[in-house]
Amino acid sequence: MNTLSASLLSLGILVAAAALPGLYPLDAAAAAVPVPAAHDHAAVVYQCPMHPWITSDKPGQRCTICGMDLVAVAGAAAAALDPGLVTLTAAQAAVTGVAVSEVRRGALTRTLRVSGVIEDDDTRHRILAARVPGRVEKLQVNYLGAEVAAGAPLATVFSPEMLTAQRQYVERIKAGAVATSLAERAAARERLLELGLTEEEIRILEGTLKPTAMVNIRAPMSGTVVSRAVYEGQYVKTNDPLFEIGDFSRMWFVFDAYEPDLAWLRLGQTVDLSVPSQPGRVLSAPISFIEPSLNEKTRTARVRVTLDNAERRLHHRETAQALVALTGPEALLVPRAAVLQHGGRPVVYVDQGGQGYRAREVRLGRVGDSDAEVLGGLSADERVVTQAALILDSQAQLAHAAVEVAAAGPVPVLPAKVPAGTPAHSEGAYALLRTLVFAAADAAAALGADDLPGYRKGLPALRAALAAYLAGYAPAAHGDLAAFAGKLPDPPDLDSARRAFEPFSTAVADLARAEQVQQRESIWIYQCPMSPVLGTARWLSRAHQLRNPFFGSAMSGCGDEVK
Fold first, then answer.
1. 72/172 Cα distance (integer angstroms)
2. Given a cut of 70, is residue 30 above it in pLDDT?
3. CB 332 within 8 A of CB 381
4. Do the beta carbons of residue 255 and residue 116 sit within 8 Å?
5. Residue 443 and residue 456 in contact, taking contact as beta carbons nearer than 8 Å
6. What are phi and psi of 408, to 5 degrees?
7. In the predicted structure, residue 403 carries a pLDDT above the cut 60
8. Confidence bin at 357 (pLDDT 50/70/90)
9. pLDDT tens digits, residue range 473-489?
10. Contact between residue 363 and residue 346 where contact means Cβ atoms under 8 Å apart
11. If DSSP codes are grouped into helix, strand and coil, which group holds residue 100?
């Protein structure tokens, strides 16, 4: 018995003894049974009120632990004492303050308190790098936090390389169509765009025909300058970072969620957050993203909430506190105050009626703010002790009470087994796969022979085999072949047929290899290392003969067998 239990027990006994003289608290069996006559000594057992396991068959004895006089208990009553049952009188229950509550069904609720940081929207963040080497002549924006509009100049760079490119373009314009081709002028114009000139600046150059070495670095989007890496007079090289711009009109609140909390979190759940810079205001927004991978060191996943910040009242990288109201599905609930721990096992005291309370082990699921989910050991409408349960538990331990396992109550509900892997093909599903494999092999043979009519003739059977396999094998609806349902059109020519067939053929061949069809049937798999669509594609063949369906007679022998 631990110190806290002993203290609480002693306190309860003293209070009860003072209020109810002559009664021994928490020992209703001893208090309720009258002391028998002297001639019934053979049927009498003497027991310590404080330590019920200290007994004697002789009167006038004292407890070897606490020194209290042993109290007589009838032999039949002593035999009937149930060490798993703690019984109180009404007066004792009132003194100890025992309160009970019903086990009920309802929605489990929990409030998750988290801390996080206000970040800018990563999808609206840009880094500007130098497109041409040169010297920074002037900075139009020379401090952090400046608000800029899309297209606004940020800096001017003197670049001899830009001057050379503009001169080449102007010379080709002046030479006209006789001396230069349209392709040459287009190439010179593309070079200017690549070096950072805008369409408007190119039109001005075409009108004035006056090249310049000055290049304006312009903002690609509206936002706030959060980083500046250059100063006036600094030389820069191509790809050197110059500015970093973030759009603060929309911000992210990002917090870390621990693994147990992920069972509660869902997209769309409302988060109420407050920031130090806006006292008295609570911002509400839904969860927009939950990171699918965990941080290996902290074992947490990042959760994101998108916030509107048109007024720029949220500051970049300021901390925030948030509450997430979580609600689970309806379940059997027991008050958290009723649950005690016995060696890591949850135990409750169930009201048996007549001021009797029995200890029972239960199985718990998720734990909410005020209730816990019951998976086994209790049933609806049973009543459990929510106040003074620790005093009852102390008495039960003093009486060597054995905690009643769930056998006395409902059979515990075992965790549901959910299949997480792909089930093996049954005989029927394999037969459907086999039909699809041979239909794909026939289509590949037709394309390998440049036989477009033969390919078109076999398309209905190929489509039917694919539809039958997707319908007959449920996991296939989530596999790679599901994307090809209804997407094998009648081709106008061989090139179109081959382009549509190549990804489908590769998917079927990979599935056939994974299911070891080539070992069970007379089928071969070949691979082309330079296919026109995928770069590397595979096909099936009924014959042990290399005939590439993606090129036909043009490159019939291109490929290798896949073992």
1. 121
2. no
3. no
4. yes
5. no
6. -80, -15
7. no
8. confident
9. 888 888 888 888 888 88
10. yes
11. strand
Asked if pLDDT for residue 204 goes beyond 50, the answer is yes
- On average, the pLDDT of the chain sits at 82
430 is written with which tokens?
A: 């394999």
**Helix, strand or coil, per DSSP, at residue 431:** helix
Residue 195 has pLDDT above 90, yes or no: no
Average pLDDT over residues 251-277: 92
Determine the angle formed by the axes of helices 182-194 and 160-179, rounding to 10 degrees.
Answer: 160
User: Which long-range CB contacts under 8 A does 51-56 form with residues at least 24 apart?
Assistant: 51/398, 52/27, 52/81, 52/83, 52/398, 52/399, 52/400, 53/399, 53/400
String of DSSP letters for 474-525: GGGGGSGGGGGTT--PPPSSHHHHHHHHHHHHHHHHHHHHHTTHHHHSS-EE
Q: Which range among 32-41, 61-70, 110-119, 143-152 shows the weakest confidence by mean pLDDT?
A: 32-41
What amino acid is encoded at 545 in this protein? Answer: Q
Structure tokens at 350: 């169930």
Does residue 525 contact residue 537 with C-beta atoms inside 8 Å? Answer: no
Tokens of 453: 């009519």
Cβ count near 129 (within 10 Å): 14
Residue 383: partners with Cβ closer than 8 Å, 6 or more residues away: 100, 101, 102, 103, 350, 351
pTM: 0.55
Write out the two tokens for 110: 């929990």
Contact 73, 44 (CB under 8 A): yes
**Mode of pairing for the β-strands spanning 270-274 and 371-376:** unpaired
Which 8-state DSSP code applies to residue 415?
Answer: P
For 26, other C-beta atoms within 10 Å of its C-beta total 28
